[in-house]
């Protein structure tokens, strides 16, 4: 991690240039080290989540490809057709219907709708 | 088939947005000032607030330019002016001159004597012609009170029949039985006055006769007022939806070129009076469910039947309200909170036979969620009572309307995909509540299903001789 490298470099600089690290400098170095660890840990967790999500997405797409090959899904319902339909039919220009596999879909925002055409929907 | 090895979540490309510019009060006042009108101190008359979502009724508070009452008057003279009860969702359609009529003891004769040359729209001109004809045919008759007895019909006789005959201007000696000529006259009266043309003078017919022509002239004047609110320039083509008649008329060069039935908002969710411009036509459309229907219909169904209900009915939950929203995880929604109104979910129904938009929707994106569209339930057009929607206008002949708007036959449908047709020029669409209509041959009243006549007549303080 870049920050960790920077922190270690700072420590090395302190060690090389100073005769003896003062207590304050030592404390500062420790803080930098802790911070670097925290950043590294968060980065690793995020990377892991992205990996899991992309793996699931790839797996689902492959399953769908298998299903298409085996004729289990009508070609007319392929992702592209649905996607095009949706992209053109919304007052707000919403694009949707992409081939999001189960488990890879984002959560829905459930806050108050905006006071515009998208928020009003179509009363029907 | 190539396989996916890894892929990250994609950012959705932004789609074209529909934006509306809302004319603010200041701009309207400036327009008035530029056009040499006096912006007078006005007292906007109190309005009854509708509980339903439908706004823009004659008794509804409306936003935007419609709240600005302008009249030709001496500066500094406070005067009550009736604000137009129509929402100019496209500000270019708002009249830039005298919009609201000052209240006063105006009557039909004075309106006909002082015809407003500043009002240029075919509806207003037609209304004036209808008023003249109505006065010639019905108001000149003796305004007698017919005794409220049992129904009078062919063969009936007695004092009530004698009065009825005089009231309708049918010549015959007293005590002559109810004749075929009288029956025809009763039927003609019924046709004009929104009554079933039975030829029998029943209670409703006698009540209408006894209300007298002054009552009906006041209604005509209220409708003339509504006609004054219409845009002055509507171009070569425009679409008028008369919510009182449940009919749509397509005008071309100020003459009717297309007519059809429509189904409209129920009395709980009346179709509002509005003026906007149709920009696009969408074939095989999706339906974006309004939040109140997600709360009242979809959330309870999900709670009852589970998330499978959504998929089984072609519903998908969207991630947010933006134009880059994507399909979202329906299990992330607290459906109980949505049902209880503590949370919201954006839901779309895919195109299909159950989609209430039918095959076509006519888009003029607006914050009211009101559109024109086809319907899968065409049986509704065989009924007299077509007030069944949540406010939208369901059209009887969507393909014909599309052809009228585009100006040429629709392109062949060779694909299963939804298609959007952008009109070369946006076409004005007006929804208005005309309870009186003149088609060039017959004056006709329509039932005031939304109850907008009486409040407007009261606000206008129309005189009744």
Automatic annotation (TrEMBL), chain A:
Keywords: Signal. Residues 100-124 have a biased composition (Low complexity). It comes from Novosphingobium rhizovicinum. Residues 27-67 have a biased composition (Basic and acidic residues). Residues 1-18 form the signal peptide. Residues 83-93 have a biased composition (Polar residues). Residues 19-124 are annotated as: Disordered. This is Secreted protein.
